[in-house]
Amino acid sequence: MSCFFRAAAHARAPGHKTSLLRSAEQRLGIIVVTLALLLAGAQSSFAHEFKLGDLEIEHPWSRATPAGAKVAGGYFTITNTGSSADRLLSISSDISAKTELHEMGVKDGVMTMRPVAGGLEIPAGGKLALAPGGYHLMFIGLKQQPKQGEEFSATLTFEKAGTVNVDFAVEGIGGTGGMDDHAN
Fold it and tell me: What is the pLDDT of residue 173?
């Protein structure tokens, strides 16, 4: 016990400011390391990406649907880091009877939506965005309603890379697919 009091008196002695500074530096170091670990853990928990060969599928998401809805949309971005193009051929999911790739556009002032035949190309070194108002997925004949805060699985099939299972995060009915929406 006397060692403890001697150490405490030694630390408080006027000529020993360096030990106080060292102690403050150690505490600061511990705080910095702890914050770094917390931020690293938080970043990985917000990450919602899947990889298949040269393809990176970023943030697959869907919107919650009202009761009785028979269809839902699906969105994500695919980045091709490879030197050759690939093609998204199809998608399947247990949440719906069938799933189709669709394109939305405006023709003669009228918004149109139609299935895409032959899949969608992901150019070498490029991106393909499936987003509201453009290319997107349609989950048709819903077997269950996507609910905000939940996830559902799907399988993407590519011409060259093969297949990959992904999880769609379900956002609110008015969700936009941004990370802010996903994090909340």
Answer: 83
